[in-house]
């Protein structure tokens, strides 16, 4: 039922997490996610965890940063993916600095000067519990008390248009729809889509993202390992995950060369996570999600950070725009890494005046694939985009802008 290979990897992820020594406040829980590379040559090349993160929070829409210096979405799955992006791009730099005698065990350069995973190398994701959104709706419903179930059954919501995302768990009986974070109706509204939706998006556009597409062909997950699903719910939850992650996108067409609909295998693990909600309930009945997020990038000069409200813990508001205090997973930090790597790869340098948004929009093939997914009358046409307003920045940190209230 549970493969030895998967169990070994999950234990390795949790061992790495434990080594980072994150102390959760009493009465709190968190979610753990990681991305790893596995080689078919497992006798000589051990699995490599390239990114790991915890987290359950995201910024309300009135706290989004204008200069890219704060991470919008700090859910573990999203942070783990951003860790993987950073590792992939930094691996190019390591290959360049190592000279002709050093070669990456994981990536290889193609004739078009972009990289891909080596033959026999594939990427897998581990999540300590079901991702929020479409994949977990029926699972959560099985644990509702009768009073809450009756309340939800009596709630009346206006019909949901096909190009509109549902807020949190509103319209909870609808499956296959886009949902925003967080699930609770009494929480501040955000522009972040659920982790189920984001995983589905990665299964079309790839893990590498828009900036990463300048250096990499699309990279897709081969497997997703999920914890905390009881054995008697495996069949139901697997069906829901397959629908949420790729089943609802099977009609997508027109994707440019190299892009596809990835269909990662969904597997479960019986290995528990020490800081999960269920584990923490044994020690404290009053549970709330932890405000802090831990991020770790393998082989990086500054491998781990703790974030709170999207910023590095302990950074005062007056210092948040200084380069040294940027979270390494923030948009502006990854933009800086992107420009540095273009120079390393001797790629034509763009104008210094080009903004993060403009550079992303210039990735033609990626944007074509994105339009096949998010464009008008496309499967995810209801996707809420943050857009130029929050991405109109360069790599300078001296502009001192504040976050904005977008309700005005």
UniProtKB/TrEMBL annotation:
It comes from the Eukaryota. Pfam families: A_deamin. GO terms for molecular function: double-stranded RNA adenosine deaminase activity; double-stranded RNA binding; tRNA-specific adenosine deaminase activity. PROSITE patterns: A_DEAMIN_EDITASE. GO terms for cellular component: cytoplasm; nucleolus. InterPro entries: A_deamin (IPR002466). Residues 51-393 form the A to I editase domain. One of its GO terms (biological process) is adenosine to inosine editing. This is Adenosine deaminase/editase. It comes from Suillus plorans.
């Amino acid at each position: 039922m549970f493969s030895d290979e998967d169990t070994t990897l999950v234990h390795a992820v949790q061992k790495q997490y434990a080594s980072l020594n994150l102390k959760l406040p009493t009465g709190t829980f968190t979610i753990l996610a990681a991305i790893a590379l596995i080689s078919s040559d497992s006798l000589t090349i051990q699995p490599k965890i390239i990114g790991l993160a915890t987290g359950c929070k995201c910024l309300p829409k009135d706290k989004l940063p204008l200069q890219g210096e704060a991470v919008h979405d700090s859910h573990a799955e999203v942070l783990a993916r951003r860790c993987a992006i950073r590792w992939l791009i930094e691996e190019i730099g390591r290959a360049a600095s190592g000279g002709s005698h050093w070669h990456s065990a994981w990536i290889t350069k193609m004739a078009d000067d972009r990289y891909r995973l080596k033959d026999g190398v594939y990427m897998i994701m581990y999540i300590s519990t079901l991702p929020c959104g479409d994949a977990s709706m029926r699972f959560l419903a099985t644990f509702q008390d009768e009073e809450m179930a009756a309340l939800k059954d009596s709630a009346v919501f206006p019909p949901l248009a096909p190009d509109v995302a549902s807020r949190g768990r509103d319209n909870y009986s609808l499956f296959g729809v886009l949902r925003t974070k967080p699930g609770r109706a009494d929480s501040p509204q955000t522009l972040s889509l659920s982790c189920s939706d984001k995983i589905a998006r990665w299964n079309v556009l790839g893990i590498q993202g828009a900036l990463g597409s300048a250096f990499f062909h699309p990279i897709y997950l081969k497997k997703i390992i999920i914890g905390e699903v009881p054995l008697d719910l495996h069949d139901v939850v697997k069906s829901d995950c397959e629908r949420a992650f790729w089943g609802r996108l099977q009609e997508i067409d027109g994707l440019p060369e190299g892009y596809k609909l990835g269909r990662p295998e969904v597997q479960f693990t019986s290995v528990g996570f020490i800081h999960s909600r269920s584990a923490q309930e044994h020690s404290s009945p009053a549970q709330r999600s932890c405000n802090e997020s831990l991020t770790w990038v393998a082989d990086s000069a500054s491998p781990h950070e703790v974030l709170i409200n999207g910023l590095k813990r302990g950074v005062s508001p007056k210092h948040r725009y200084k380069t040294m205090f940027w979270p390494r997973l923030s948009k502006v930090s990854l933009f800086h890494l992107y420009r540095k790597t273009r120079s390393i790869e001797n790629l034509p340098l763009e104008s210094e005046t080009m903004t993060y948004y403009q550079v992303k929009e210039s990735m033609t093939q990626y944007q074509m694939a994105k339009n096949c997914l998010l464009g008008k009358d496309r499967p995810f046409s209801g996707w809420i985009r943050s857009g130029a307003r929050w991405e109109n920045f360069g790599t300078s940190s001296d502009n001192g802008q504040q976050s904005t209230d977008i309700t005005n």
